[in-house]
Amino acid sequence: MPRQRQAEQRPLPAAAVRAAAGGRGTGRRLGAQARHRPGRLRRDARRPGRELRRGGDRCRRLRRLLLVHGAGRDRARTPRGPVLCRVHVRAGHHGPDRRAGGGRPRPAAHRHRPSARLADRRPARRARRRRERPDPRAGGPVTAAERVAIVTGAGQGLGRAYAARLAEAGTRVAVVDIAGDAARSAAEAIAAVAGAGRVTAHEADVTDAEQVGAFVGAVADRWGRVDALVNNAGGALLPTAPFDSFSRAEWTRVLDVNLTGQWLCATAVVPHMRAAGYGKIVNVTSTMVAKGLPAGLAPYVTAKAGVVGLTRALSRELGPDGIRVNAIAPGYIPVETRKTVHTPEAALALRERMKSEQCLPVVGVPDDLSGAVVFLCSPDSDFITGQVVNVDGGWTHG
């Protein structure tokens, strides 16, 4: 037999056999499997300085052999005295003769079981490591009058329309704009309809982290909560031009206002939403991302594409905290802005071309978008997150 020839070529020294057996008996007590695998025992007998000694050293040596050969923990806790006939030399082998290396198998539930001391500590350690998260369906105000919404860039244009419709729905609204006079004027006009004390005005640049933290803190101090954030501040900011004609400063400015500002505002409001276990974030992107049109607005289109990625990333990360993150993509809505992007002739031509390409051949107005914003800020959209809602008369579909 090949195994017998191997045993003849590599005979096991008698001293090693007696040492592994604790000095009592011969290799006859090692069992059939141990005798046919001399290499297993030879590895344990190669270190003369660590041979079996009397007393506790001998039992520790036995327990080490038992664990190495797969006997398991219950086999390692043996009484004093080296009974090497029960050494397992192959994991999972349970022969009919227990003295031939088989032994009694451990129950599956007891295999790889941690020590009792570690098992006692594990629940406490896991509790410290894992933050308790609320039920995503729990939390949130009971009535619309309790909700608090922040709208950035609400001093004019679309942002002002969003803030007005939210206030009409009963939500308390914080109007934020980089132009303080425009923010105060919008807040006064909205308060005249919604009621005094339900609208506040804040002057802030959304690209400045300190100013963002200041107005979010002021809103939380006044009303005790922040339920919704509409990240509307942004704009093309620059006239249309070839992509390689923009300076690095112009490129960075457009990305900061349209993308980084939304990230900063979300970072500021999320702690308040997490504390309540509820929140709505509505980012404003653009349908230009789908088609890259009109030409000449590469920095703006790039920034708005980043808003889509930010929306999806935040919805995935904040969902377990009960915070829903969505985006709306407005079509071409003619509004007055402080920065002129198109000449009057180009703006008229763009409006007519967009109308002809839409499924609905009409020109959009700010109120066409406000309903979608109010819906995404309300409990009616609690099962919607990570979505981009195109409000463009079907332009991206056409």
From TrEMBL:
- Domain of life of the organism in this record? Bacteria
User: For bias kind Basic residues, which ranges apply?
Assistant: 34-45
Name of a matching Pfam family = adh_short_C2
Q: What is the lineage of its organism?
A: Bacteria, Bacillati, Actinomycetota, Actinomycetes, Streptosporangiales
InterPro entries linked to this entry: NAD(P)-bd_dom_sf (IPR036291), SDR_fam (IPR002347)
Q: Where is the composition biased (Basic and acidic residues)?
A: 46-56
Keyword Glycosyltransferase recorded: no
Q: Where is the segment annotated Disordered?
A: 1-56, 88-144
- Gene Ontology molecular function: oxidoreductase activity, acting on the CH-OH group of donors, NAD or NADP as acceptor
Species the sequence originates in? Actinomadura darangshiensis
* PANTHER family associated with the record: 3-OXOACYL-[ACYL-CARRIER-PROTEIN] REDUCTASE, CHLOROPLASTIC, SHORT-CHAIN DEHYDROGENASES/REDUCTASES FAMILY MEMBER
- State the family named in the UniProt similarity comment for this chain: Belongs to the short-chain dehydrogenases/reductases (SDR) family.
- Descriptive protein name: SDR family oxidoreductase
